[in-house]
Design a protein that fits this description.
Distance between the termini: 28 Å
Number of strands: 10
Helix content: 40-55%
Number of helices: 14
Order of helices and strands: EEEHHEHEHEHEHEHHEHHHHEHH
Radius of gyration: 19 Å
Largest sheet: 8 strands, parallel, barrel
Length: about 300
């Protein structure tokens, strides 16, 4: 299914910038590695040149640093900007507007999709975001990390003001299919709501590059989430991914991303290197067969590995 924003067809992948910025919630803290701005620029240019124009960021990624870098690269480019407001425990209209204005100042672009990043004070936050949408300060509204009942509530609030939910953005991977089993994915497909899947590669754990002998940096978020004993449990899944990927000339990571596309989602792929951006170009026309999807999902389930993020 094809979706459009701002008159542009949404590509099969959105490009994520979580690993771009330094500082709190940035690349070192979450991923255990720093990102080189020169390499990021090459990755951006390669992705953009190949039609990947939807870029996903947030004020909390490196506390604004990811937005600043994206703003430098995207100047004078026609991108679709996906940005987020992470709500506080207590509703604060001034905080929403201030956060939005700071994001626009850093990126230099009005968000085409502005996401309520967590299901906190849903009624108040979405009502105020609708006023921003009416005033033309944002292009549309999406919700992230919501369950199905919360999505339905969000739809009703937006409909009250004459708006449609622009998208759903949730954690979704071969080893975390909670929102599929709870019928979120099928609901979004039925209602023509784009489902943006994040952490499809589990921040590198499902790329096959890390295993029981070569793990993640210990004190990073992914090192804590995926210690070596968990990576060892994933090794049979890597073999299944290799077996299926070889039919299409795909790496383990590319096979995982193709699975996510084949399930009807739009994966948000973190890209920090030029080769990562280029590898996405060969996945546009590949869809896995139902029996291949079934093989992968059974293999993933047999690992008994499921990692839930702290914010879920």
């Amino acid at each position: 299914m094809q979706y459009q924003i701002k008159g542009n067809i949404i590509p099969k992948f959105a490009i994520g910038t979580w690993a771009w910025g330094a500082g709190i919630n940035g690349n070192k803290m979450i991923f255990g590695a720093s990102a080189d701005e020169f390499e990021l620029k090459k990755a951006f240019d390669t992705a953009y040149k190949n039609g990947f124009i939807l870029w996903d960021t947030a004020a909390v990624y490196g506390m604004g640093n990811a937005e600043k870098i994206l703003g430098k690269f995207a100047a004078n480019k026609n991108i679709i900007l996906s940005d987020k407001y992470t709500p506080k425990k207590k509703f604060n209209a001034k905080d929403i507007e201030q956060t939005l204005n700071q994001s626009i100042e850093r990126v230099g672009i009005v968000p085409d999709i502005y996401w309520l990043h967590l299901p906190i004070n849903i009624e108040e936050n979405l009502t105020y975001m609708c006023s921003l949408l009416s005033a033309g300060k944002i292009g549309s509204i999406g919700v992230s990390n919501f369950n199905l009942d919360q999505v339905k509530k969000a739809e009703k609030i937006l409909e009250r003001y004459g708006f449609k939910l622009a998208g759903m953005q949730n954690h979704y991977s071969l080893i975390f299919r909670k929102y599929e089993t709870e019928n979120m994915l099928s609901y979004c497909n039925e209602k023509n709501i784009p489902f943006f899947s994040y952490m499809v590669l589990e921040q590198g754990a499902l790329t096959g590059r890390f295993n029981s002998k070569h793990g993640f940096p210990i004190f990073s978020r992914r090192g804590i989430a995926f210690p070596k004993h968990k990576l060892k449990k994933l090794e049979p899944l890597f073999e299944t991914l290799k077996q299926i990927g070889e039919k299409y000339g795909l790496t383990i990571a590319e096979t995982v991303l193709t699975w996510a596309i084949s399930k009807g989602t739009i994966p948000i792929v973190g890209v920090t290197k030029e080769y990562q951006a280029f590898s996405l170009t060969k996945l546009n026309d590949i869809i896995l067969k139902p029996n291949e999807i079934d093989m992968l999902e059974k293999s993933a389930k047999s690992t008994e590995v499921e990692v839930k993020a702290s914010w879920e």
